[in-house]
Design a protein that fits this description.
Two copies of one chain form a homodimer. By secondary structure, the first copy, chain A, is an alpha/beta fold. Chain A is built from 17 helices and 26 strands. In chain A, the strands form five sheets. The first copy, chain A, has a nine-stranded mixed beta sheet with strand order 2-1-11-10-12-13-14-15-16, with helices on both faces. In chain A, helix 2 packs across helix 3. Chains A and B meet through helix 1, strand 9, helix 8 and strand 16 of A and helix 1, strand 9, helix 8 and strand 16 of B.
């Protein structure tokens, strides 16, 4: 027997309508690509999103058609989010930091009909001219005064495109499972894979991720998503912040310390979110200039794990760090490291260790930590297993891709090897493929990297496996040192001794000038393994840790 | 084109599973009907809910069958919520404060197969014996030692029923639109009508109502729903609090000031929710005994509007009041009076006026304030209109009732006449049927009642219409005075003069010993109109306000 409740669908347009009707005067502030700061209200944004929908209608698109964006966090990008998805098309955010070939692949694979791009990406657009000429339009997100001239592409001007459109538009009502947005993963290997979000998944994720234990967004906050809108929909904030009606601050292209600091202070930002790299830049700049936050109180950190040292640096500046975990396939938020009341008695060190974990499950997401025998591993915070997830905002497959080995039996295999404790705190031990398998034991490269990172001489650290005749694999530490700093193999052994089991201490140290990263800033472990293999191809170490 | 996300259903069992897995050690504390305090954990609760599901399976119920409860807020009632709904049956909470005939009607109309009842309600059960004998079982929520003896009914003992059942049970997965819970409205007129909630509506309502601007429930709170679990599912808290994993405190049968105060203090309650009557009792007791709250920080008030004086009394005790509005048909929460940042500059009086309003729309609920011409009225905070609502947790009709005039065109007519301002703050001007229509103008009985209530002599006030040859209707104030207090018609005119337009000042004053209420504590306006009509049947007032 079914309940007797209204079957009102969960749609992205309902977020916009709510923001427009009840928080119409809340502000959206954007640092623009053209320079300067733009400010308007949710009511203004909603009116322009309707102009976008009216403009799109003239291109002869069909429901479900993909419309690409190549843009920073800014108000025009936000208008596209709502204008495209609200009208029933799919907003396909493209990561401009990907390599040329990947972008080309993604646009073709997605079948984008129109592409909207920030001014900044003209060189990318021109290099993609052969592909883009097949599209219905390429639109530059600027006004006539700033329109670039291109020899190779016909470009439309966004402001001209929408200028004469009506700001009245009835958002269509359709099945909440309708496709809403598309984002390609930029994995460390293989072709990018598209995750096709539904209106339902986006709305549910926004509700869950804004809740008190996760991002804690209320209408009295000022929220600045530093994580880009092309990076898993800026972790849902372009949806969750308007849903709540909080002031939204969009940082544009400049994510350096000086730019972010001045933006936070000028606009009174209270909550921000982004990846560790950005925060290191910000905190370094602040330390160098002796500056302090006056309004910021919470930084949500994800993308990769914050080193405990980063959490401490934020805390020393009065900012609480909430580590959140997610993937493109999980919309993204699945875990957040909010403490429970019983943890109030923990000392600083223990508290920090917990906060640095990936966190506890967000309501709505189910987790299964599966051992090699296919059964759940003990919830003791020590036993390792593969992390499988399911839930209404988890991908069931990839766009236009017949098979996905990661999706089976109703679960998605995240590819992470983790521990989970009795409270549900998950710690990623490693990527399944990055774990160092030594003498029958699993050694987490990440655990070793965090320890290395805590040393004052170390700027960045990576641990990878190197083949070993006796043990199968042995860990090797690869570091970039701070300017003028010194760090030897003996220093390394001293650092690790008594902090981890002896067999987990890295076998060797390699100092490099820089570490290779993926387009999204993650360590490129495959490449680092190659560097290490090459370095040790011709020699054997003098003395083994385990000898 | 549909998105490619998992179609994991939103089910009540997913709330329980989350609580059990990740907040298994969070506490549930109950004052029991038998006397004393019971405490256990979410893990314990989940284990016993599974025993309930296993026990229910033996009665030969079919999916969708209704199982009734007649119980206070306590742990066994909570186990039934999850055990019944989780297994695919419908948890039908019955309000024991209703009149005998209403309860009899409700049990029959719902087609309850089994009834679970607290000890306290044995007299009700025995009076219902002819109806209850048709049920598969009547189970008393107690242990063998406390089992009552009944001459007229065969009663089962809850603890015996579940004692030998397994605490292992696989919650079935089904369509999220499946019926989950049933609650009858106890309107002021007509037969009670059943609202049949779905798993989807319950889960979405719990997510929305726990958010930062509504109840703001985080896992570090201790939440005490004083509003009964038979009163629109205690406003969703038996679902939202376990969803978040906060400590849950259930007050049992004793809702007097002394009992609530000691419970709040002993258990460290930080958030509570209930109707104004209960709070007046609590604050009066505290004032009489010179006591102060040490942990409580927020009181959600609903059911009927809190007088501004009540909000002030709470604030003076360090407690922030959040007025929330809802109905059985809206699950219930649709509005909450959380202020926006711009309201920080308001003076106390203006702030209070805003907080006393029914509040702003919760995301997910859509509102239409419709004038007599069928068009939306201006959002100026002054223009009146009928309040229509829609959304995923709004009833689409009533159980086992073919037609509902209140449901049409995709909207539910709340029966309230309201204003809405530009921020979405709704103020109920009156029930559509209680508005005083005088000389072509609408006069809000509630606005007049609030003013009367602010006078020190007035204990309780009601305003109703009385027929008037010249003006159609004129308002009459009916008051209960505080012990020994004096309040004349001249006092009344003085009180209202300059606070409202002259034509809105009540025409006459009637002092009574007590006012009639519905079973759920609402003023019985129909009855009050009869009292007033009888009083004035034989006489005309000396001087009219409008003469």
């Amino acid at each position: 027997m079914l309940g007797l409740m209204m079957n009102t669908p969960l749609l992205v347009s309902s977020i916009l309508r709510h923001a427009e009707n009840y928080n119409g005067d809340s502000e959206i502030v954007s640092r623009t690509v053209e320079g300067g700061t733009h400010r308007y209200s949710y009511a203004d944004m909603a009116a322009r999103a309707k102009k976008v929908a009216n403009a799109l209608a003239k291109f002869g698109l069909s429901p479900g058609d993909r419309v690409g964006t190549l843009a920073w966090n800014g108000y025009r990008h936000l208008e596209l989010y709502y204008g495209i998805s609200g009208a029933g098309y799919v907003c396909h955010t493209i990561n401009p930091r990907l390599f040329h070939d990947q972008i080309e692949f993604i646009i073709s694979h997605a079948g984008d009909q129109i592409l909207f791009s920030d001014l900044s990406f003209l060189p990318i657009l021109e290099s993609l001219a052969p592909v883009l000429k097949g599209l219905k339009a390429v639109v530059i997100l600027t006004d006539r005064a700033h329109m670039p001239v291109s020899e190779v592409l016909d470009l439309l001007c966004y402001e001209e495109l929408i200028a004469d459109e009506s700001d009245s538009y009835d958002w269509p009502e359709f099945d909440e499972n309708t496709a809403c947005a598309l984002c390609y993963t930029s994995g460390t290997s293989g072709a990018p894979k598209g995750v096709l979000y539904s209106h339902r998944s986006v709305v549910l994720h926004a509700m869950a991720s804004s809740s008190a234990d996760i991002m804690s967004i209320s209408s009295s906050e000022t929220v600045c998503p530093v994580v880009p809108m092309f990076h898993v929909n800026a972790w849902g904030m372009p949806y969750s912040v308007p849903m709540i009606g909080a002031k939204l601050v969009l940082p544009g292209a400049k994510l350096d310390g000086a730019s972010l600091f001045s933006l936070f202070e000028e606009e009174g930002v209270t909550i921000t979110a982004g990846v560790p790299t950005v925060w290191m830049g910000l905190l370094d700049w602040m330390d160098a200039h002796g500056r302090h936050f006056t309004t910021l109180k919470r930084a949500v950190i994800g993308g990769s794990a914050p080193a405990p040292a980063l959490i401490t640096r934020f805390r020393d500046k009065g900012v609480n760090v909430r580590h959140a975990w997610g993937m493109t396939e999980t919309s993204p938020i699945g875990l957040a490291s909010s403490l429970k009341p019983k943890h109030a008695v923990l000392d600083d060190e223990a508290r920090l260790m917990l906060e640095a974990k990936q966190g506890r499950p967000v309501f709505g997401m189910e987790f299964r930590i599966e051992g090699t025998d296919g059964n759940p591993v003990p919830r003791d915070g020590k036993s390792y297993g593969a992390m499988l997830v399911r839930g209404p905002w988890v991908a069931a497959g990839y766009f236009n891709t017949p098979e996905s080995p990661a999706h089976s039996g109703g679960w998605f295999d995240t590819g992470d090897v983790v521990t989970m404790d009795a409270d549900g705190f998950v710690q990623i031990v490693d990527r399944n493929k990055d774990v160092v398998k030594s003498g029958g034991e699993w050694i987490s490269s990440i655990e070793l990297e965090n320890i290395a990172q805590s040393h004052s001489a170390v700027k960045e650290a990576a641990v990878v496996a190197r083949a070993d005749a006796r043990w199968g694999e042995r860990p090797v530490l690869v570091v970039v040192l701070r300017d003028g700093a010194r760090f030897t193999r003996d220093d390394m052994v001293d650092l690790f001794t008594d902090r981890i089991s002896k067999w987990s201490i890295p076998e060797d140290l390699v100092v490099v000038d820089e570490l290779p990263h993926t387009a999204t800033g993650k360590l490129l472990k495959m490449k680092i393994r190659e560097i290490v293999a090459a370095r040790f191809a011709a020699m054997e170490p003098d003395d083994s840790i385990l000898s």
